[in-house]
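Progress note, sequence design subtask.
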């Protein structure tokens, strides 16, 4: 027979045990954001799809923000998962959603409004907001010149907030915010005269100006601003602290400077006149030689766009040129180099490209095995220009100065010394015009970047179809320049 008296002690014990279990469970802390990221093994990051942040080319994912946040994910020992926002407001909205991305890396500026919504990291890149107008129109030089102009900016951007604050002082300023455009669209609209003005950060303008021959900078609107990463609001600082530690570390160890140099260190090489000329030549000259570049690149296992960039630096993609020093052809080969590479006619574009490709591949193969990419490519280009002996001299000088002889950023500091007697007299190969390979590599990197961006489908208005490059901002009806000048 069931005994109530026997049940009571057992029931009491069960209740006590259950209470203790619940109390202990309440004492166990939930994992913080950083712990969850590491447990999941994935860092979810939201960004914008643009040349300055994140895009995909034929080699895969790339972009300044992508490269930086990829290194952060590697630092954490987790995989990187990239998501793209339709617009800036959408990006910030995603940061507030439970289960959404934990980090936004998209060239964001910490404005007063946004500081109330999210938390910002330490800065990693300083940019300047610039007023952009169309060449041929009156140049704006102050905020008063914005009155009466048709202005459009990205909705939710720091530029929109700047204009809102300015409008309080100058009510005559009118502007439109759009969430249906990106920076490239705004620049195209100014270039084509659809709008009078826009505001763009200096880094994005510099990267895109080559595509739009009519855009000009009117003036800088305000002081420089710092770009920062963003995490969701709250009191959990675990991920933010880790981000700040990482950004401080890459600032100190040179990684951040390397990426800045890679994406922004050579953006002013062309200037406006050079940008327009290059855009014309992309349309008028490159299609004649593109297949030769592609075939030779495949044979030598080189990116065809890098070969094309070398060819442009050497001859502006002209097959019949001859320099005062006797180098000839599209790749400007010396007689000795041409013979060594099996080129019988330097003025034959196909032979010249084949010879240049072989020579570059040869210079690359001669480098120390310890030199890794991308430094291997930049150092090979320097050797292509100045010779492997002089490059070795510069590398030894770098090592003597406590720098890394396998890093282009360090070696390029030493190359100009080869033109100074107090330095070159101590070297094995003596004098060289050491500043030339530095400019040579910078120019080629710029041309290569442009070709990379133009030949990837995400950049609106620029595409490759049937072997022809289509470049915005170029009037195809203008006559082609002569093709056989003496350089």
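Output:
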């Amino acid at each position: 027979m069931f005994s109530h008296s026997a049940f009571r002690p057992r029931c009491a014990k069960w209740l006590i045990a259950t209470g203790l279990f619940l109390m202990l469970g309440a004492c166990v802390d939930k994992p913080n954001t950083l712990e969850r990221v590491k447990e999941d093994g994935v860092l979810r990051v939201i960004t914008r799809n643009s040349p300055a942040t994140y895009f995909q080319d034929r080699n895969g994912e790339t972009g300044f923000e992508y490269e930086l946040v990829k290194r952060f994910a590697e630092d954490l020992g987790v995989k990187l998962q990239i998501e793209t926002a339709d617009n800036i407001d959408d990006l910030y909205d995603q940061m507030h959603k439970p289960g959404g991305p934990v980090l936004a890396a998209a060239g964001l500026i910490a404005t007063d409004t946004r500081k109330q919504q999210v938390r910002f990291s330490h800065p990693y890149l300083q940019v300047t907001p610039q007023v952009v107008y169309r060449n041929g129109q009156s140049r704006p030089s102050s905020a008063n010149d914005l009155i009466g102009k048709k202005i459009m900016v990205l909705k939710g951007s720091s530029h929109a907030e700047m204009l809102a604050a300015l409008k309080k002082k100058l009510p005559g300023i009118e502007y439109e915010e759009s969430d249906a455009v990106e920076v490239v669209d705004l620049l195209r609209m100014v270039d084509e005269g659809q709008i009078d003005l826009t505001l763009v950060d200096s880094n994005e303008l510099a990267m895109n100006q080559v595509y739009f021959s009519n855009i000009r900078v009117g003036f800088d609107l305000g002081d420089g601003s710092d770009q920062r990463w963003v995490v969701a609001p709250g009191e959990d600082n675990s991920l933010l602290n880790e981000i700040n530690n990482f950004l401080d570390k890459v600032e100190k160890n040179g990684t951040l400077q390397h990426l800045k140099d890679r994406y922004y260190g050579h953006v002013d090489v062309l200037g406006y006149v050079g940008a327009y000329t290059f855009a014309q030549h992309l349309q008028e000259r490159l299609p004649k030689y593109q297949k030769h570049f592609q075939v030779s690149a495949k044979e030598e296992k080189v990116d065809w766009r890098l070969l094309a960039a070398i060819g442009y630096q050497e001859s502006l993609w002209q097959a019949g040129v001859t320099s005062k020093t006797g180098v000839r052809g599209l790749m400007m080969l010396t007689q000795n180099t041409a013979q060594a590479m099996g080129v019988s006619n330097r003025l034959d574009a196909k032979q010249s490209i084949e010879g240049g490709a072989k020579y570059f591949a040869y210079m690359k193969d001669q480098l120390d095995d310890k030199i890794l990419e991308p430094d291997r490519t930049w150092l090979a280009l320097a050797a292509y220009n100045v010779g492997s002996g002089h490059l070795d001299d510069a590398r030894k000088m770098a090592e003597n100065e406590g720098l890394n002889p396998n890093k282009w950023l360090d070696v390029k500091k030493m190359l100009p010394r080869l033109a100074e007697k107090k330095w070159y007299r101590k070297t094995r190969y003596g004098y060289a015009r050491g500043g030339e390979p530095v400019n040579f590599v910078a120019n080629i990197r710029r041309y290569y970047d442009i070709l990379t961006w133009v030949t990837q489908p995400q950049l609106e208005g620029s595409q490759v179809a049937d072997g022809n490059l289509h470049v915005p901002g170029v009037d195809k009806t203008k006559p082609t320049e002569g093709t056989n000048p003496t350089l």
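The longest helix spans residues 4-27. Work on this subtask will continue into the next period as scheduled.
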